[in-house]
Design goal:
mainly alpha, 19 helices, about 0% strand, single chain
């Protein structure tokens, strides 16, 4: 609420429009969502131009995701200290500059470094959006409408990003998938400066846990590095990297238990529902993110689709997700409770992944791609709002922002790890068959089938975990999170 009070006390002569502010916040979110989807379709073109290896290509995505996920908690804390508007505007500026650097990249190192800078800007922007939105719309009914609009923008960004990625890559070249962020970023930045109400923040003197941020970011980066390219290293080296990353996570936990102002209050994990919901999300997002990446490669490298046709082929999924989230998810959860809706969604996701695990060499879009695509869309539209509600249902009011930051972090970690695991397995399987003399397309399809089978297993594990851990009377009845506490 201080976001609104500050604007009235320091700028009494000016009225700030809440709905115009929502548009600005959605525009910033749209940029990050577009970036996550626009890259997927252009991957083969980027690989061919810059000479990435199969596992190395995943770093075009991971270089963004790891700093994004690792810095969300720190960026959220800094937003509390310097003010949401300052953090959001600075994040837009960093993201836009990084996008231009990606667009003019002429080497692997330059592109990966610029993508990492994009991740930093994305974390700065995304970490404060939800808190600003809640402050703008404190009344429950208006807040629900605002969150619905915010969610719909995310789904629309997924559809637009996939389509734009194909269209720009095919009509021009892959560089333009990043350069398109320049006009959007500049306009959003100018609008943020003009429209968003100022917020003082608590002041940098309150401090933040910078050593803790360094530990958790290093742990996340090393974890994904240990997985990506594991097939190219010896087992001993991979296990050593995994051990070091585990040690960093342990050091982070010890630091959080002792730090005067921790990034993450460990008492949050006393909530079985919150911990379980975050664990389920890691598995669910890991499988879904891997599907989006590998599914696009399957269409291009096995079925021979061009970039534009690939982007068009993916449009039904995010459109269906957006329509179902706005039209049915809230009412379904209110009627059946988030627990039942989550389980139903995970069943649909598991079924969709199982169908994709067929992935024939001579497959067709209508028979082999569209049906599982729609199953996955329906499952995700049901599961995602349900698991979000469950994750926040056992949280005290003063911890709501921190729990939201944790949820965003596990979402990014799940996507990054899922992508790393599935792409590494697919590449290893393909290389093994190629060395045995198999045809390139047949070997590639076999690698993708393995990845989809593993993704099916991940979805089933998420389903079993959710069924065993998240069953509570509140979860079944759909009790409001506002009535819950740790």
């Amino acid at each position: 609420m201080s976001f609104l009070i500050e604007s009235r006390t320091r700028h009494p002569q000016r009225t700030y429009s809440r709905w115009a502010s929502l548009v600005v916040l959605c525009a910033g979110t749209l940029m990050t969502v577009l970036d996550g989807n626009v890259v997927t379709v252009a991957m083969p073109a980027i690989q061919g131009d810059l000479g990435f290896s199969g596992p190395g290509l995943a770093w075009v995505v991971n270089a963004y995701l790891i700093p994004f996920g690792g810095l969300l908690l720190l960026a959220g804390r800094l937003g509390d200290l310097v003010g949401g508007k300052r953090m959001f505007s600075a994040g837009l500026a960093v993201f836009t500059v990084a996008s231009v650097l990606c667009g003019i990249a002429t080497s692997q190192a330059m592109l990966v470094a610029a993508r990492a800078l994009q991740g930093i800007g994305g974390a700065m922007t995304s970490a404060v959006v939800l808190g600003m939105l809640v402050a703008l719309f404190p009344e429950p009914r208006e807040q629900a409408r605002a969150i619905a609009v915010f969610s719909a923008v995310g789904a629309a960004g997924g559809a637009l990003g996939t389509f734009l990625g194909g269209a720009l890559t095919q009509a021009l070249n892959w560089h333009w998938i990043f350069l398109i962020n320049l006009p959007i970023g500049v306009l959003a930045w100018l609008a943020a400066l003009r429209i968003l109400a100022p917020e003082r923040g608590a002041g940098l003197g309150r401090g933040a846990d910078y050593p803790g941020a360094a530990l958790v970011t290093g742990a996340l980066m090393l974890t994904v590095y240990a997985i990506v390219g594991a097939g190219d290293r010896g087992l001993a080296t991979t296990l050593l990297l995994a051990a070091v990353s585990l040690a960093l996570f342990v050091a982070f936990a010890v630091r959080q238990a002792r730090a005067p102002r921790p990034l993450l209050r460990l008492r949050l994990f006393r909530s079985r529902v919150l911990t379980g919901a975050n664990a389920v999300q890691v598995l669910m997002i890991g499988g879904m993110f891997g599907f989006q990446y590998i599914g696009a490669l399957y269409l291009q490298r096995v079925l021979g689709y061009g970039e534009l046709l690939t982007g068009t082929a993916f449009l039904p999924a995010p459109i269906a997700i957006g329509v179902l989230m706005l039209g049915l998810s809230a009412r379904t959860i209110a009627h059946f409770g988030p627990y039942r809706v989550l389980l139903s969604g995970l069943v649909l996701i598991s079924a969709g992944m199982a169908l994709l695990s067929r992935a024939p060499v001579d497959g067709s879009y209508l028979a082999d791609v569209l049906p599982p695509l729609l199953l996955l869309a329906a499952g995700f539209a049901a599961a995602m709002p349900a698991v979000t509600g469950l994750a926040m249902s056992g949280v005290r009011e003063e911890d709501a922002g921190l729990a939201s930051g944790l949820f965003n972090t596990t979402q990014v970690v799940g996507g990054s790890l899922g992508l790393a695991v599935l792409t590494t397995l697919a590449a290893s399987r393909t290389d093994h068959l190629r060395h045995g003399g198999a045809d390139l397309v047949a070997a590639t399809a076999s690698g993708y089938r393995l990845a989809f089978m593993v993704a099916t297993g991940i979805a089933v594990v998420a389903l079993v975990l959710a069924a065993g851990v998240l069953r509570t009377e509140r979860a079944i009845s759909g009790q409001s999170p506002a009535n819950a506490s740790l």
